[in-house]
Each structure stands twice: as C-alpha cells, then as structure tokens.
C-alpha cells in the first residue's frame, strides 16, 4: 500500500525546500506539501503542493503580528492573535488532513505545525536544526515528535538539547541535492587553481559587494560572487562552480555545508547570523573536524591572502560529513515512522 505523507516546508531561504526534494525522491509515497512558498516548477512523482497564507504580514485593521503576543507568553514561536493568515494556514492543514487517513507528517520546520499535527493524532517527523534550541517551544516540538531527523553526522555534532530524546533521534548525515552528481576530476591543488567562488544562500547576509571586491583585490585572484550579496547574480545550480573553484567561500547553513562536502571543496566558511546560533554551531563542528577554515565574520581585506593560503593547504576528509546515502537514510526513517512494526 502506498504511504500517504504530509510535509510542511518552511518558506525562509531555500534549504527546507531543497531538503524535501532530496528526500522525497527516495520515498515511494503520496506526498502533500504545505508551504507559503509558491509551487516549484518541478516536483517528484506523487508529490503535490498546497500554498498556505502568510501569517507574518501587516494587514490593515488588525494588530501587527509581532505585537499580537505571537509567542503565547513564551510557549510557542509564532502564533499571533487575531491574524487571519495564521488561522487560515493552520485551518487549511487541518482540513486537508481530516479528509483521509495519513501515515505520517514531516515538519521542516515549525513548532506550531508539529504540535497541531500531533494533536490530530498523526505520527510526526520533525527535522531538527543545529544551535542552542533548549527553549520551551523547541522542547515542546521535539517532545511532540514521533521521530526527530538530524541532517548532520552524529560523530561531529551532537547538540545537548537532543540528548534527552536520543531514543527517537536519527542522525542521517548531511543532505545535499548534488549527492548523485558526478564530480569532475580536479587538476592541481587549491594553491594552483587561481579562482575563488563566494557562494551565498537565500537566507541573506550582511556582506557587501564592496567587501567582496576588496577581498579580490587584496588576494590578486579572480573572485566570482554567486548570490552572496544583494546585487550579485544568483544561480540555481552552482555545481560546476563548486567543483571547479580553487577555493569556495560559503556560509554555514546545513545545505551549504553538505554541498561543500559532496563537492569535496576546499573552503573558507563564514557563519551568518541566524536564530539560536545555528550556523555558528555548524561552523564550529566543521572547524573541529578540520574540514575548512572558519572565521566568524567577514574579515578585512588584509586578512584574505593568509586565509586563502590556509585553506589551500587543507586536505579535508569530507566523508566525515556522511553525505553519501544521507537522503536515503532520512527517507527510511520516515518510512519506519509511517509504518511502525507491531
């Protein structure tokens, strides 16, 4: 019998969507996705998409959501009082789930959706994120979960807030959409390949075009800026850039690090400011494992020549990030949750 699975995809950045697309390809299931994002141009077979209302917009005649007790006194992360978008999105999820049986629901990420789905009596798979997430809402969401997926290697990053629920946490390794792409043969080492790619993410950063230009001038190398600053060109498929660059400068989001790993990149990693220090914790794990040079903020131009030299001298063993088979392991954990043994 084909499994029926719901999937909440958070709208911030592009990582949540990329992760769903990577895992869904390994699931023989009927998947219904719920998100404020527009429907992607291409979805895996058996996957449909329901667009949810936004609940963070300011509307005429009602209190701005940020001022409408959105945390319910610290119990939740985002549940603004009196906002029709918030009511509408949760009602749409509940109405869809009420029409037929569901085997499991994956939440990436929302405490409120996780709790709603569990209250409806559906097995819930929560995607965990790094960082210090020991606050009341996170503890509530994790406790409500049937299974918790941690998309990074346990040996390198084991957050303390997941220890109390270790029996239901599955560490899959890093999940990359490029896992099955053939990697071109590299010629020379990092010091010989005289170019740098700066790989941004859709979550944003405070790096400027001027800062990138100054770094390029200081090193005397060719730099390509792919979405790292507001005016830089964006590419939906940076695989060729990742695998051909001498050095990659990247942020420390989960998908970025997994992409660096599968590309075998020589990298300088700069964690961006994110809630709960998510990228900072990930970057520290990468640094401890000797996988990249890590600096906690964009350095002055004068520091870049030495950083590039340090990175070029690395021989990172990216297999430690366990990308190979990670999406399939996540899919298997979802299947096991949806079809528990008696």
Please explain how this structure is put together:
The protein folds into two domains: 3-175 and 324-338, 3-Layer(aba) Sandwich (Rossmann fold); 195-321, 3-Layer(aba) Sandwich (Rossmann fold). With 342 residues, the chain is α/β, with parallel strands linked by helices. It contains ten helices and twelve strands. A seven-stranded parallel beta sheet has the order 3-2-1-4-5-6-7, sandwiched between helices. It has a five-stranded parallel beta sheet with strand order 9-8-10-11-12, with helices on both faces. Helix content is 30%, strand content 16%.
Query: Which CATH architecture of the largest domain is right?
Result: 3-Layer(aba) Sandwich
CATH superfamily of the largest domain: Glycogen Phosphorylase B
Shape estimate: globular
| CATH-derived topology of the largest domain | Rossmann fold
Biggest sheet layout: 7 strands, parallel
Return the domain count: 2
CATH top level label of the largest domain:
Alpha Beta
Which consecutive residue ranges, at least 5 long each, have pLDDT under 50?
Answer: none
Tally of helical runs: 10
- Cα distance spanning the termini: 17 Å
The whole-angstrom Rg is 21 Å
Question: Order of strands across the widest beta sheet?
Answer: 3-2-1-4-5-6-7
Q: List SSEs in N-to-C order.
A: EHEEHEHEHEEEHEHEHEHEHH
């Amino acid at each position: 019998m084909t499994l029926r699975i719901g999937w909440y995809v958070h709208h911030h950045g592009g990582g949540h969507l990329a992760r769903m697309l990577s895992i869904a390809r390994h699931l023989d299931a009927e998947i219904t996705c719920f998100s404020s994002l527009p429907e992607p141009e291409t979805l895996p077979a058996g996957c449909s998409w329901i667009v949810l209302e936004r609940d963070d917009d300011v509307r005429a005649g009602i209190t701005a959501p940020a001022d409408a007790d959105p945390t319910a006194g610290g119990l939740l992360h985002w549940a603004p009082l009196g906002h029709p978008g918030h009511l509408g999105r949760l009602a749409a999820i509940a109405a869809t789930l009420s029409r037929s049986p569901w085997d499991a629901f994956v939440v990436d990420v929302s405490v409120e959706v996780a709790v709603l789905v569990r209250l409806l009596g559906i097995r819930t798979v929560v995607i965990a994120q790094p960082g210090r997430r020991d606050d009341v809402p996170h503890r509530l969401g994790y406790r409500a979960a049937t299974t918790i997926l941690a998309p990074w290697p346990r040996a390198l990053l084991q957050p303390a807030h997941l220890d109390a629920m270790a029996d239901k946490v599955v560490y899959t390794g890093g999940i990359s959409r490029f896992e099955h792409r053939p990697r071109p043969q590299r010629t020379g080492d990092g010091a010989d390949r005289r170019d740098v790619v700066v790989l941004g993410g859709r979550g944003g950063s405070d790096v400027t075009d001027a800062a990138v230009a100054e770094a390029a001038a200081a090193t005397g190398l060719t730099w390509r800026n792919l979405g790292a600053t507001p005016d830089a060109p964006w590419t939906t498929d940076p695989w060729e850039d990742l695998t051909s660059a001498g050095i990659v400068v990247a942020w420390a989001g989960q998908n970025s690090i997994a992409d660096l790993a599968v590309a075998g990149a020589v990298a300088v990693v700069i964690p961006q400011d994110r809630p709960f220090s998510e990228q900072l914790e990930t970057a520290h794990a990468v640094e401890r494992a000797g996988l990249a040079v890590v600096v906690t903020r964009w350095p002055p131009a004068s520091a870049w020549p030495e950083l590039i030299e340090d990175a070029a001298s690395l021989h990172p063993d990216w297999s430690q990030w366990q990308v190979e088979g990670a999406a399939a392991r996540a899919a298997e954990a979802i299947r096991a949750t949806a079809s528990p043994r008696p």
